[in-house]
Amino acid sequence: MSLKDLTDVTYYDLNNEINIPVNGQIPLNKDQEALDAFLTQNVKPNTKQFETLRARFDYLIDNDYIEADFLNQYPFDFVEQLYAYLKSQNFHFKSFMAAYKFYAQYALKSNDGDLYLENYIDRVAMNALYFADGDQKLAMDLADEMIHQRYQPATPSFLSAGRKQRGELVSCFLIQSTDDMNTIGRTINSALQLSRIGGGVGINLSNLRGAGDPIKHVEGAASGVVPVMKLLEDSFSYSNQLGQRQGAGVVYLSVFHPDIVAFLSAKKENADEKIRLKTLSLGITVPDKFYDLVRDNEEMYLFSPYDVEREYGKPFSYVDITEEYDNMVANKNIRKKKMMARELETEIGKLQQESGYPYIINIDTANRANPIDGRIVMSNLCSEILQVQTPSTVNNKQEYSTMGRDISCNLGSTNIVNLMASPDFGHSVETMVRALTFVTDHSDIDVVPSIQRGNHLSHTIGLGAMGLHSYFAKNHMNYGDEDSLEFTSTYFMLLNYWTLKASNEIAKERHESFYKFDKSAYADGTYFDQYLDGSQDFEPKSDKVKGLFEGIFVPSKADWEALKQAIMTDGLYHQNRMAVAPNGSISYINDTTASLHPIINRVEERQEKKIGNIYYPAPYLSNDTMPYYKSAYDTDMRKVIDVYAAAQKHVDQGMSLTLFMRSTIPAGLYEWKDGRTDKMTTRDLSILRNYAYKKGIKSIYYVRTFTDDDNEIGANQCESCVI
């Protein structure tokens, strides 16, 4: 029997029995029976066996399954020591879904697909040895973090570490176009190249002139952004890693761009096929001024990027529209259109109801909180990456006449339940930062020089979290209550503190800081004001939360002052350190809930290709925790926003915040529905978007709608940029 010819297996049927109540109870024992059957019937007979560890590695190297160089950095007796430690930790998957996901998507298989060539311990060992880069202590520390599932590298890193045939270790990319044909052509080429490498691609189109703007002073010549969007969608469809995965991209446009209505209309189900976008994601950047105009029910002006760039001497994205709005309105040299702001707000809500798009980037909020010299102009495929960029220009020879800075995303995640049980929280985080640093140091995307340059100058990483709802339920906290907000704030304050401390240590070791550190809010110390000025106290206050952090070091103001002085003296290696990604399928392997948002169902039904439905009970689900596991679709989204806002105060980048809505809203969930229709409306989404904005949320990812016929709209199908 091989993996291609599995017969008489029972684990799928056993797993499906979880969804059939027995005496009014969920038969959770069926999940354990399915897990045992899967390991017995699928994994054990189809895993290639080796007499010794040395024989295994020799086979994998000789047959070009893994690289030899990283392994040769270690004496083999150390590799054996590391394996002995990992085996002694007695790791076991806790659910059928965890084991199934690992072996289906992450385990190394033979070239013919007949056999597994590694188990979970092997993949952890490969990651630890690869990311430690010959440092034996770091390799052991990484092995310890990963086998106890305190740390989870992003999918591209976890999957590719050590393999001979692999994609890049980074998760996704951000690029931008300026307003000329050479740069547009270079942007399309970059999209092709990056999609080929693997990972999602975010592209900012706000700088492109609108439809009808002049080309070489010929009125009405430009075609606008929609044809470029079509070219990009076709590029991602074509460049799909030899058919292994669908290329994935998102395009961003300013809400004040004159093509904004056409931009949104291209995603509608009834759009003309010539302009309709089927697979490309949409995001919009929204300055404060738009919220002001909507609030006051005023007209809004949409400005010609071509004219704005001529007047201000810089691309449209780099002009602060909120600050310059009145001047731009009064400037007769800038062509403009006008419409009612609330009409556009309604169009955004309609499209979110229909498709889940567009993502919302509160661009002024992001830039106000940005401690780095420069301007954030866009985000990525999952809306959590928020870093400064500078534009590039390309000459007629397709050479860079100005080399800008673009972005590659390098991500990893803490498992909140397990990290809270770490014997040394700070050391755990430092180990994770060093693993992520290896990825950024060894990433060299030379096919897109602006990304290569940005990475080499900035050394950015993005450490995030998963399993927040698991932790709440396990510790009897209702999602969004005061204790849960207090815990979230303290946890992310600790992540911030320890990532800063680790980055400072690396800067001291290497005598190197990120580009323009001296112009950052870290260098002048103002970044630390929120921890030192007395206006906010992030230490635990309630007895409940104090108890949860008992035995865990929580920095005092004196500790923050000492860290501030150390950073002002010796710098930081990483320009950016934290970001919370959606945590897709890999959260299952960690047997935890995804990201920071609530669960969807106590027993989640997941559609798997060629298999059908697989059922996944919420982690730690029991009679004891069940009252604390309320579906996201039955949760007031203001509670979700409150939780994310508690974390956002400490996260230097963004978070993939998803809104979960029912097409028929449960009675009593939102007070503004009283006396009105119980159907979800654009007004509901507008209220929630404005609430998020006022709470300091930098970005809103998808809007997922559960319809009355049990379908989901806007569910994220992209695996490219998720952890």
TrEMBL record:
Report the protein name in the record.
Ribonucleoside-diphosphate reductase
Q: Name one Pfam family in it.
A: Ribonuc_red_lgN
Report the Gene3D superfamilies cross-referenced here.
1.10.1650.20, 3.20.70.20
Q: Catalyses which reaction?
A: a 2'-deoxyribonucleoside 5'-diphosphate + [thioredoxin]-disulfide + H2O = a ribonucleoside 5'-diphosphate + [thioredoxin]-dithiol
| BP terms from Gene Ontology | deoxyribonucleotide biosynthetic process
Enzyme Commission code: 1.17.4.1
Role noted for this protein: Provides the precursors necessary for DNA synthesis. Catalyzes the biosynthesis of deoxyribonucleotides from the corresponding ribonucleotides.
The upper taxonomy is: Bacteria, Bacillati, Bacillota, Bacilli, Lactobacillales
* GO MF annotation terms: ATP binding; ribonucleoside-diphosphate reductase activity, thioredoxin disulfide as acceptor
Which residue ranges does the record assign to the Ribonucleotide reductase large subunit domain? 560-582
The record's annotation in NCBIfam families points to: NrdE_NrdA (TIGR02506), RNR_1b_NrdE (TIGR04170)
Entry's SUPFAM superfamilies? PFL-like glycyl radical enzymes, R1 subunit of ribonucleotide reductase, N-terminal domain
Which keywords label this protein?
Answer: Allosteric enzyme, ATP-binding, Deoxyribonucleotide synthesis, Disulfide bond, Nucleotide-binding, Oxidoreductase
Gene Ontology cellular-component terms for this entry are: ribonucleoside-diphosphate reductase complex
Q: Which family does it belong to?
A: Belongs to the ribonucleoside diphosphate reductase large chain family.
The record, for PROSITE patterns, names: RIBORED_LARGE
